[in-house]
Amino acid sequence: MKSRITITSIVIALVLSACNSGSTADKAKNENQKSSEQKATSTSAIDMVAEGQPEVAQVTGAPNVPAPVGDRKPKKLIVNLETTEIEAEIADGKKYTFWTFNNTVPGSFIRVREGDEVELHLKNAENSIMPHNIDLHAVNGPGGGAEPTFASPGKEAVFTFKALNPGLYVYHCAAPPVPMHIGNGMYGLILVEPAGGLKKVDREYYVMQGEFYTKAGKSDVLEFDNDKAVAENPDYVLFNGKKGSMLGQNVLEAKVGETVRFFVGNGGPNLVSSFHVIGEIFDNVYLEGGSTVSHNIQTTIVPAGGSAIVEFKVEVPGVYNIVDHSLSRTFNKGCLGQLKVVGEENPKVYKKGGF
Ligand SMILES: [Cu+2]
């Protein structure tokens, strides 16, 4: 019995050691490869950054995005964000106390180029009650900027980072309790375009999902309900911080034959989105906002604290519903937008009736 245990132990030990040595070698190889790639990126980028005065980056509120970076070289940019605590309509005439970056949910869209150096100024409004900060997922550095940007009401904090990795990244407040700050609307997107820029398209829109856990406040303004957040049972799941943000007067627009690009983000704080446009197929999806492009996708996953870039050409006029395909969120919790496409009918592609 004893010897059998010993033999078994030796066999297990050998198997484990073989597994470990294999994975360690692979890991080392991957890390070497990654580090040499990163070194190449950062060295060439450092050499290329233009000297001189930094420029102030133009930022935009959803659904708009700033102009593409184009084919420029890396440069120094200043990004100004202000954290605020405001009352605004959330749905059906009801108000909510939102916490924001630049007075909007989601916060301003930031657009930079790979290799840019960004000096980020975070001002916390004088009349805020809470301290706030920012963690940008585009940052290489502990906390993504959270510690150096922690700002009490009325204070401004600054930190600098170099945008090493191209992609579409979420930023959010990381002041405790973090789910409450995010749940009140403190998130947005920063796009780091690759050298040479993204391919030109006809239309670009900023669409960001987030869910809201509400209870009656002291006045008629709703406020954050922590119990509902812990249970991950929101009252509202919304695009761009308001029910109807992309409906009626605010519908997104395109023309037949155009290619549309959505920069899609999910602030969460908890739910994963199954992002879908009813009656369209995504020709290209930058999976999770990274560099791998997949094609012919019906529904794409947008994780909490994650993103996706979707592109599709519109062939047929009409109204296209933009949804989270976890459809109770669309039918019961407000998660619906629309894209209105105008132009000539295209019966070869779509028509009522038979041949
Ligand atoms: Cu905050």
* H/E topology pattern: HEEEEEEEEHEEEEHEEEEEEEEEHE
Share of helix, binned: 10-25%
What is the overall number of helices?
A: 4
Tell me, what's the shape?
globular
Strand content: 35-45%
Mean pLDDT across the residues is: 90
Low-confidence stretches: 1-43
Counting DSSP E segments of at least 2 residues, the number of strands comes to 22
Rounded Rg: 23 Å
Question: Separation of termini?
Answer: 78 Å
Distinct ligands, ions and cofactors found in the model: copper (II) ion
- Largest beta-sheet details: 7 strands, mixed
Structural class: alpha/beta
Chain-wise SSE layout:
Blueprint (H helix, E strand, L loop, with lengths): L1 H47 L6 E2 L19 E16 L2 E8 L8 E4 L3 E8 L10 E2 L19 E7 L4 E6 L5 H6 L3 E7 L9 E10 L1 E3 L4 E4 L1 H5 L5 E4 L12 E4 L3 E10 L4 E5 L4 E5 L6 E5 L1 E4 L3 E8 L4 E7 L3 H5 L3 E7 L13
Parallel strand pairs: 1-2, 2-5, 3-12, 4-9, 10-15, 14-22
Antiparallel strand pairs: 2-3, 5-7, 6-8, 8-9, 10-13, 11-12, 15-20, 16-19, 16-21, 17-18, 17-20, 21-22
The chain binds copper (II) ion.
The site of copper (II) ion has 7 residues, from loops.
